[in-house]
Amino acid sequence: MRVFRVVSLLEATSFLLLLVSSVVKRTHEFELGVTVLGPIHGVLFLAYVGLAFLARPQTRWTNGRMVLGLIAAVLPVAPYFVERRWLRPVEGGRPAAQEV
């Protein structure tokens, strides 16, 4: 679970940085940021999706929660929400907010 939480945060951060780099590329014709961050974000995105499936038994996510968790991977800040609300442990070692 700790790895999934870290990847969730890294994926969201890399997505935001990639968006900023895309704007810089278009406005200042500086492509290095996109060239470097694109593949990094791609690997983190695939890791997030894979870990979502691997962590499903531990998170006890319903089908609806799983779909929302996967949709979160394509929204710029949604993985921050997933990490904060659905993956962070609470009393008893279970993730917070199990309902969908």
What does it look like?
Helix 1 (2-28) packs antiparallel against helix 2 (32-59). The model has no long low-confidence stretch (mean pLDDT 84). This protein has 4 helices and no strands. It is an all-alpha fold and 100 residues long. 75% of the residues lie in helices and 0% in strands. The protein has one domain. The longest helix is centred in the middle third of the chain and has 28 residues, at 32-59.
Give a quick precis of the structure.
By secondary structure, the protein is mainly alpha-helical.
Shape: elongated
Rounded radius of gyration (Å): 15 Å
Total of domains: 1
Q: Please, how many helices? A: 4
Could you name the ranges where pLDDT drops below 50 across 5 or more consecutive residues? none
The string of secondary-structure elements, in order, is HHHH
Largest sheet: none
Q: Indicate the percent of residues in helices.
A: over 70%
Structural class: mainly alpha
State mean pLDDT (0 to 100 scale): 84
Q: What keyword list fits this structure?
A:
transmembrane helix, cell membrane, single chain, mainly alpha, 100 residues
Topology:
Blueprint: H1 2-28, H2 32-59, H3 63-72, H4 78-87
Pfam family, one: DUF3817
Organism: Thermomonospora cellulosilytica
Keywords: Cell membrane, Membrane, Transmembrane, Transmembrane helix
